[in-house]
Amino acid sequence: MFLDITMMIRLTIYIQKHFWRHYRKCILKYDFIFAYREKNIRDYEKIGYKRVRLLKPYYIRERNFYMSNLLTIHEYTDIVDS
């Protein structure tokens, strides 16, 4: 079944609007929340939740997939320094 563009737009708006509703309702009942960004900590504090800490992402070479052949930012950008 194919959806027309209007139906796809309506569905997208509905999903964006309602996706986090259960999470938002339960936030104040959680024991603790870990956030990845300082801004998120401030957002939680604005709604009255105080038990928030920063969880910094980390990389362990032995446990994570290592990709040695990645290009650096200078190798794939088309910006020329003058």
Biggest sheet: strand arrangement: 1-2
Tell me the structural class: mainly alpha
Q: Percent of residues in helical segments?
A: 40-55%
Low-confidence stretches: none
Distance between the termini: 53 Å
* Strand fraction: 5-15%
Number of alpha- plus pi-helical segments: 4
Indicate the radius of gyration in whole angstroms: 21 Å
Largest sheet: 2 strands, parallel
Task: Characterise the protein shown here.
With about 80 residues, the chain is mainly alpha-helical. It has a domain at about 25-65. About 40% of the residues lie in helices and about 5% in strands. It has helices at about 5-20, 20-25, 40-45, 75; strands spanning about 35, 50-55. The chain has a two-stranded parallel sheet with strand order 1-2. The longest helix has 14 residues, at about 5-20. The radius of gyration is 21 Å and the shape is flat. The model has no long low-confidence stretch (mean pLDDT about 80).
Produce a short descriptive summary:
The chain is mainly alpha-helical and 82 residues long.
Fold blueprint:
Blueprint (H helix, E strand, L loop, with lengths): L4 H14 L2 H6 L6 E3 L2 H9 L5 E3 L18 H4 L6
Parallel strand pairs: 1-2
